[in-house]
Amino acid sequence: MVLLMLTRRLIFFTLAALNASSVPAVDVLIVPSDEHRSYTQFAESAALGLSAAALSSKILAPDEVPLGEGELERHRALLAIGSQSAELLNSRRPRAVPLFYALVQHPELLALDTDSTACGIAMGVSPSEDLALFRRMIPTSHELATLYSSKDPASMRRIEEAREILGEAVGLATVDIEAHSSPAEAIRAMIALRSNAIWVAADPVVAQPSVVRGTLLYALRRSIPVFAFSRSIVEAGALAAVVAPPSEQSEQLVELVAKELAGTGVVRGLHPADHRIVINEMVARRLWIPIPRELQDSAEILGRH
């Protein structure tokens, strides 16, 4: 009986291995991180776009991807949707096969931002879009506060870029989260600066859920508006954010893949080309901040009656 069970298990795993290795060679292998709707919709949209560009593709879940020797080399490119699949493919692929990625929260944590054989679209919009919204919503502001990490080169670059964008008209008050014993202490230090607003950026350290929650809590107590990077944070109490809908990023990514495979070269380190503004009307009213007339029709305003 035991022998029969072991034989059946051996047959099962042998067939599974054969099935995994039978994935036909295609131009682009697309791997969404899981079955979450945003990932699967992105994958399906990308497949349609690639087909229109005369490129064949195949969508596989992470546990369906054949990782045996020479398997990933059968494809001209790999497309990872989400951090899980990006980490998997990047760790197992030969560098001769380029990796494209999207919906990866922090590509720098996987060293994708410095890999010449990887190319993708950042989840968040560029700092210039965030700061432009801040100026439109509170044009009389003279100082914006934000947390950063002195141990993270990407975080340091964000601060430098923000200072250049703001210029001399608006000061950028920064608090190094690494210089404090806890994130809560760093948040309290930032609140004590009494800046006109707080900027919660899509930063690996700053964007941790506990840090975001703490920032919103202290800021609302002191009636300080918060500008963030996602719709969910605006729903939780931030004043506004510039967000990039995933559905609109697939076309941009397909264009990158098509250009790379055609040998025309691509620009790396891109931010989403399309975005929209989300504003929390209840927070705006509480803080006595009027929503600019030009945004009343174009922005998504939560809580509008």
Keywords:
single chain; 305 residues; alpha/beta; Rossmann fold; 2 domains; 7-stranded mixed sheet; 5-stranded parallel sheet; 11 helices; 12 strands; 41% helix; elongated
The name of the CATH topology of the largest domain is Rossmann fold
Q: What structural class do the secondary elements suggest?
A: alpha/beta
- Biggest sheet, spatial arrangement of strands: 7-6-8-9-10-11-12
| Helix and strand element order | HEHEEHEEHEHEHEHEHEHEHHE
Query: By CATH's scheme, which homologous superfamily of the largest domain applies?
Result: Response regulator
The radius of gyration computed from the alpha-carbon positions, rounded to a whole number of angstroms, is: 23 Å
From the N-terminal CA to the C-terminal CA, the straight-line distance is: 69 Å
Q: How many helices does DSSP assign?
A: 11
Q: What is the CATH class designation of the largest domain?
A: Alpha Beta
The biggest sheet amounts to: 7 strands, mixed
Share in β-strands? 15-25%
Molecular shape? elongated
Helix content: 40-55%
CATH architecture of the largest domain, by name, is 3-Layer(aba) Sandwich
Give the low-pLDDT segments: 8-20
Question: Can you tell me the number of structural domains?
Answer: 2
Please state the average pLDDT score: 85
According to DSSP, the number of beta strands is 12
